[in-house]
Design brief:
The chain is mainly α. The chain has one domain: 2-Layer Sandwich (Herpes Virus-1), CATH 3.30.40.220. It contains four helices and two strands; from the N terminus they run H-H-H-E-E-H. The structure holds zinc ion (ZN) (2 copies). One zinc ion (ZN) binds next to strand 2 and helix 4.
């Protein structure tokens, strides 16, 4: 496995590991965020706003028993195990869908190619190695497949 930041080879602890160290991961995402802001001037303000909204929604689903979706999240033991900073680094850590590879849309996240977050293993929590970016259309067809497999 080659580190995405320093390009050095390393032995990953798990299949999804992209960086040889926390430092490489941190600096990569710092640089990425700066580039991202430069390349998306018109929605720079939304950078934190949109991500914060997503984070707050997850927090509600996982931690507020009165939230309508709590039974599918917090009620099933799904927890939010990352800080807002860590979350934003992952949420904006990729501009392409982890399944089909198309560039995700930040201007309209409700569009078919809109940016969405996926929990890779549905039994696991919102934690760094279990999250990836998908386009809305891939996320929806995956949700359909998962439902079908459970029935
Ligand atoms: Zn590295
Ligand atoms: Zn996709």
């Amino acid at each position: 496995m080659k580190c995405k930041k320093c390009k050095r080879s390393f032995d990953p602890n798990h299949g999804n590991q992209k960086f040889c160290s926390q430092l490489c991961s941190d600096t990569f995402y710092d640089d990425y965020r700066e580039d991202w802001k430069k390349n998306h001037p018109q929605i720079e303000q939304d950078y934190t706003k949109g991500g914060s909204r997503a984070y707050n929604n997850i927090q509600q689903r996982c931690e507020n028993p009165n939230h309508p979706s709590y039974s599918n999240y917090g009620g099933r033991g799904i927890q939010l195990r990352l800080s807002k900073e860590e979350f934003l680094a992952i949420y904006f850590g990729s501009d392409t869908c982890g399944l089909c590879g198309q560039t995700v849309n930040d201007e309209n996240r409700n569009a078919k190619d809109g940016r969405t977050l996926d929990r890779i293993d549905q039994a696991k929590s919102y934690e760094p190695d279990n999250l990836r970016i998908l386009c809305r259309s891939c996320n929806a067809s995956l949700a359909y497949k998962r439902r079908k497999n459970r029935l």
